[in-house]
Write a structure and sequence with these properties.
Number of helices: 12
Length: about 270
């Protein structure tokens, strides 16, 4: 329980800091962000605030839940989804600014266990058959792209039917990681971006799941038609393509589109230190 409280406190502090305006009269950007961006966007948002003087209000959750909320009029300016399919559906429904879908990264799935765990993660998903495992955490596959990827990977490796009774489902990939970190699950299938974050990298071990085991996790952002800050939202999307931001996203384990990675050498923005 203490681990969970410290985790939530960290997220609260990050949100508060990012949401503080750098100067009076600054614009406020409301972003719905997939939970795998929790740590990466705490840094990205802080850099944008420092660079522009605007306010960024980040709300994290599962992409599927945000999709439903936006359909029902949730007041966001930008939607950063972990699955390009959701922005595409919103565009088809006329709920986005046409032509603003931007595939900003590809995510990676890993198997993560606490440092004290004696599990041999080098065995890959076969590790999940270890008799010492009681609970396995994944995100809800119905509305969390990483949960769907986890199920696909387990099916590909032929272990899903053997372990499905042991699964505990997080509302999003961040909560899934909390289940393992707090001891409510023995191992979890989570986003690489969480496993390498400072808050987690010293508390556990991970192994990447082969990309061939699950469909690509193509992540995309889009500006919403209902936004009252479309110009600022467009500015944030441009900021995502800057050299320093690209480097930061890569540091959190994301694969950045090749055209953006290739162009970053010509960007004058300094890389983060």
């Amino acid at each position: 329980m203490a681990h969970t409280k410290s985790w939530m406190l960290l997220l609260l502090v990050a949100l508060v800091c990012i949401s503080c305006p750098a100067n009076a009269g600054a614009g406020e950007l409301k972003i719905a962000a997939a939970a795998d961006l929790t740590f990466a966007f705490s840094d990205v948002g802080a850099r944008f605030v420092k660079q522009t003087g605007n306010t960024v209000k980040l709300t994290y959750g599962s992409s599927g839940n945000f999709f439903a909320q936006i359909q029902n009029g949730a007041p966001f300016d930008l939607f950063f989804s972990a699955d390009v399919g959701y922005p595409q559906k919103l565009e088809a429904a006329g709920l986005t600014v046409p032509g603003t879908i931007y595939e900003y990264a590809s995510g990676k799935l890993v198997m993560w266990a606490p440092t004290a765990s004696k599990l041999d993660l080098s065995r890959g998903l076969a590790t999940l058959l270890d008799p010492s495992i009681g609970k396995i955490a994944i995100a809800k596959p119905q509305h969390a792209p990483y949960g769907a990827a986890a199920v696909a990977a387990m099916r590909h490796e032929g272990v899903y039917d053997k372990v499905k009774g042991q699964l505990v489902l997080g509302e999003n990939i961040s909560q899934t990681a909390q289940f393992v970190q707090s001891g409510n699950a023995d191992v979890g299938l989570i986003a690489l971006s969480l496993a390498v974050a400072p808050a987690m990298k010293d508390k556990g071990r991970y192994v990447e799941i082969p990309a061939a085991d699950y469909p690509p996790i193509i992540q995309a952002a889009v500006i919403l038609k209902s936004s009252h800050n479309k110009e600022l939202a467009n500015q944030f999307l441009k900021f995502m393509k800057e050299r320093g931001t690209v480097a930061l996203m890569e540091r959190y384990g994301f694969s950045v589109p090749k055209d953006i990675a290739a162009d970053r050498n010509g960007d004058a923005t300094p890389a983060p230190h």
